[in-house]
Amino acid sequence: MAVEITSKIVGYRIKQQEPAVPVPELQDENPLTVRIPSRPEGTLEAVSEKISYVGAEGRKKVYLLVSFMPVEGVIGGKRVVIERPVEFFFPSGQLSSEHQWITATMRSLSLAARGGYVTQAVADLRKVAWDKGLVRCGMNRWNKPMFHDSEVAAIAWSIQQILYRRGFLDREGNQVPVEQLVERYAHRMTHGHAWQPEEEEATDAPVERGAAEPIGEKAQTGKKSEGSGPATVGNCPECRGELIMMDGCPTCYAGCGWSKCG
Fold first, then answer.
1. Cβ of 202: how many Cβ atoms within 10 Å?
2. Angle between helices 151-165 and 118-125 (to 10 degrees)
3. Are the beta carbons of 256 and 243 closer than 8 angstroms?
4. Looking at per-residue confidence, does 229 or 100 come out higher?
5. Closest Cα to residue 96, out of 62, 134, 51, 67?
6. Under a CB-based contact definition with an 8 Å cutoff, are residues 149 and 216 in contact?
7. At what angle do helices 118-125 and 99-115 cross, to 10 degrees?
8. Residue 29 phi/psi, 5° resolution?
9. Contacting residues for 61 by C-beta, under 8 A, at least 6 apart
10. DSSP-assigned letters across all residues of 197-209
11. What is the rounded CA–CA span in Å between residue 123 and residue 121?
């Protein structure tokens, strides 16, 4: 813009550039522990899985739904995004008894997920035991059946499997470091599909094709191992399933419930 000078010039001064306003440094905020007040509105990505297990009341099949959402945070002054589970849902009407406790447990898990401590909560559920005997659910990495101390423990193991295959937990059920979660979410955004366990663990022991690598290899299996796990003692005369010793009596856990002691 031109300025008309109407008086005599007696001096001049060069205008100094104003100092740049410093940009405040972002404070670190771990996206794993960011509290999510409530389930966000709208649609969330979810994994629906059918869980099959065999307990004292025979074989049961139930469905479980786990929802995920991206969560922002700050690591080393840089904004990052990871994916976290935020909701666990167990559709009603699947079990005739104690459904209120199952619903309460799923609500508590959802609160733990939004509070940032779902890994510990699921691990604690795996320690729940009952007096109705072992529950058979899932296969280990050697394609042998796994046994759990209760139905709750079996469902918790199945939840860990979902979170492992999604890349949120490692194969032992431990929390994956946030730096790896950032990389896995970026991989998902770049390649259009979720991170797969075999992409990072190709050098480990092979797994049967079509079966996910299970969590908790130290859990009980159908063969007697060092210090834990029931031993198989033959095959069931009714269904040819494996027999295990239970209360001093060979008992079938393959589905028919046959027992030598009646």
1. 8
2. 140
3. no
4. 100
5. 62
6. no
7. 150
8. -145, 110
9. 50, 51, 52
10. HHHH-TTS----T
11. 5
d(CA 168, CA 174): 9
Q: Nearest Cα to 64, choosing from 77, 53, 75? A: 53
What pLDDT shows up at residue 177? Answer: 94
CA dist., res. 45 & res. 166, Å (int): 12
Instruction: Note the pLDDT of residue 220.
Output: 39
Distance (Å, rounded) from C-alpha 54 to C-alpha 175?
28
CA atoms within 13 A on the CB side of 92: 5
Q: Are 28 and 74 in contact (CB under 8 A)?
A: yes
Distance CA(85)–CA(259), nearest Å, equals 41
* 91, pLDDT greater than 90: no
CA distance 147 to 164: 19
The residues near 173 (Cβ < 8 Å, ≥ 6 apart) are 119, 122, 123, 126, 160, 164, 215, 216
Domain boundaries, the chain: 45-196+209-219, 231-262
